[in-house]
Amino acid sequence: MMLRNRYNTGRKKRGIGKFLLVLLALIVIGCGYVAWKLLTPYGPQESAQAAMETAGGVTVSEQENWIDFKPDKPKANGKSVLFYPGGLVKPESYAPLAHELAAAGHHTIIAKMPVNLAVIKPDLADDILAAYPEEQFVMGGHSLGGSMAARYVVAHPDALHGIFFLASYPDEKGSVQKLDIPALSILGTNDGVVNMTKYQAGRMYLPPDTVYYTVEGGNHAQFGDYGHQKGDGEPSISEEDQLKQTVKTLLSWLDTIK
Questions:
Q1: Does the keyword Hydrolase apply (predicted)?
Q2: Is 21 strand, coil or helix?
Q3: CA separation (Å) from 217 to 220, 223, 226?
Q4: Model confidence pLDDT, tens digit, residues 120-165
Q5: pTM for the whole thing?
Q6: CB neighbours (10 Å) of residue 82?
Q7: Cα gap 233→226, rounded to integer Å
Q8: How far does Cα 109 stand from its chain's mean position?
Q9: Cα dist from 99 to 49, 66, 227, 234, 258, whole Å
Q10: Are 235 and 219 spatial neighbours (Cβ–Cβ below 8 Å)?
Q11: Which residues lie closer than 8 Å to 246 by C-beta, 6 or more apart?
């Protein structure tokens, strides 16, 4: 009888052990699935993929930590552009914007962020600026990328010649309000991703002479080419129209920077 009880007890313990192992495996798989869903980035669509090709007087090349859009005929005294992508958006998604800026003569570089989050490596600009020491850069970004760009500018006030925000805003740590630096902010009226309360509050961290531009009918995702973003508003203008307005505004602003 005692041997049978011991046998039954041992079998129960093994059964509990197997159950716990299965439960642990399910938890690990579940956490992995959730992390995969949360960290799956938005990727470049057809227009962005096409803009990654060398064409139209722009040479496109990829480095380990950035994508380079170099004009064959750089604009005399034109500023170069350093761009931080939005959170969980692949850098190639902004190729149409970068290609257009480069076609107008401005060397443009898109940073490649670890796991597509600028908050992971906000100082990536160090490597880019060091690679092109003879050039004068402005810096900016889309959404989270713009906020992280502002923090970089604050930490390196003498390294950049301007800051711009696409559907983005600075926070207290990225306040450029007291810096003697040109600033530009562009926002679409149908943006459903930007927290408008924080966006309005972020104005206090911008210089008083900041240039603001509103894209009527534009939304959040159409500053890049990566498809619909969860929570975003529906645009009432085309992606091409939003890109055209954004490029025109950026180029006009860049022309004012000495």
A1: yes
A2: helix
A3: 10, 12, 18
A4: 999 999 999 999 999 999 999 999 999 999 999 999 999 999 999 9
A5: 0.86
A6: 26
A7: 15
A8: 12
A9: 11, 14, 19, 25, 23
A10: yes
A11: 97, 166, 186, 215, 223
Among 218, 71, 73, 198, CA closest to 144: 198
pLDDT, tens digit, for every residue of 124-135?
Answer: 999 999 999 999
Largest Cα–Cα separation, the chain: 96
Are residues 110 and 139 in contact, defined by beta-carbon separation less than 8 angstroms? no
CA-based nearest residue to 257, from 75, 24, 36, 126? 75
Strand pairing of 211-215 and 160-166? Answer: unpaired
Beta strand ranges found along the chain (DSSP E) = 58-62, 66-71, 80-84, 108-111, 137-142, 160-166, 183-188, 211-215
Tokens 């761009």 correspond to what residue? Answer: 83
Please report, for residues 93, 136, 151, 175, the alpha-carbon distance to residue 48 in angstroms, rounded to integers and kept in the order given: 5, 26, 27, 32
Q: Give the list of residues 6+ apart from residue 40 with CB closer than 8 angstroms, or none.
A: 88
First-residue to last-residue Cα distance in the chain = 95
Q: What are the residues whose beta carbons fall under 8 Å from the beta carbon of 115, sequence distance 6 or more?
A: 39, 41
